[in-house]
């Protein structure tokens, strides 16, 4: 347990995972589709003094995971710096079960004015938010917009596409290996974008995926990565909350691109780059709006260069490869969208006709694999 700030109160849970302190947020956002009628029923909010505010965070993993939950915890720390004296509480490793509902209810019972779920908890959080209309709720990777519940996510597919270009230029076997948690839209979006980027410079590229049913399981990730390299993949990528498969890449002499944060230190000789996330500004902005009395539920993406980007290129990335990949990054920052038809799925069905461009909402809800992907569905 970690306690700081004024009038700290004790929150207990079966997960034994607590912290009280200060909070902050702010970022450039791209609005997305939600329940359009939600805003019309919002009850006006009153300003809150920082000393009277309690902000709660429910994390999907441990904040020491070196990845997803650690990045969100950095956002919690940014809130504390921005609003000295504000109180925060967090619970790590919130399960995807009825225990999540109990934890979110505890936040409300403890007097939280705002609750962030740093992963998708669906009805587990919505059931609580529906019964606590005076509390502001935000769900990362969510889909529901109500008068007091919004969601936010990162448009990570652009950074993945950029890294995919490097993968396509550097791979000798033409086979990418991908480690994911579950066959869900965020995983499809990452795998699809990486392969499409690779295919933009080498149309023969393929991607083999393995899902391990966990975001944080170093042993399973190591086993999956080893199997992929044994099957001829010479470039590893994926969405994991720790660097296990980078260590496999080092041991096996292949390349790897990571996720969540820069992980160069875990294997510089194999490291290519990483999709890096930064929720600091977003959290500061949300809390500031709550304190000002101007908070409204929203559906928003953190965009390329504003909350998500690629990490610096690893030392083994040739200058020409970096330049070619970054040329695409420059085009994206200028407004170019590379997710253009025709795009077929891995069963041969035309999913995106010629002349059609996938917007962020369509990519975010994607539940199919592009041609060349195997192992994900």
TrEMBL record:
<feature type="domain" description="ABC transporter substrate-binding protein PnrA-like">
    <location>
        <begin position="55"/>
        <end position="296"/>
    </location>
</feature>
<dbReference type="GO" id="GO:0005886">
    <property type="term" value="C:plasma membrane"/>
</dbReference>
<dbReference type="InterPro" id="IPR003760">
    <property type="entry name" value="PnrA-like"/>
</dbReference>
<dbReference type="InterPro" id="IPR052910">
    <property type="entry name" value="ABC-Purine-Binding"/>
</dbReference>
<dbReference type="InterPro" id="IPR006311">
    <property type="entry name" value="TAT_signal"/>
</dbReference>
<protein>
    <submittedName>
        <fullName>BMP family ABC transporter substrate-binding protein</fullName>
    </submittedName>
</protein>
<keyword id="KW-0732">Signal</keyword>
<dbReference type="Pfam" id="PF02608">
    <property type="entry name" value="Bmp"/>
</dbReference>
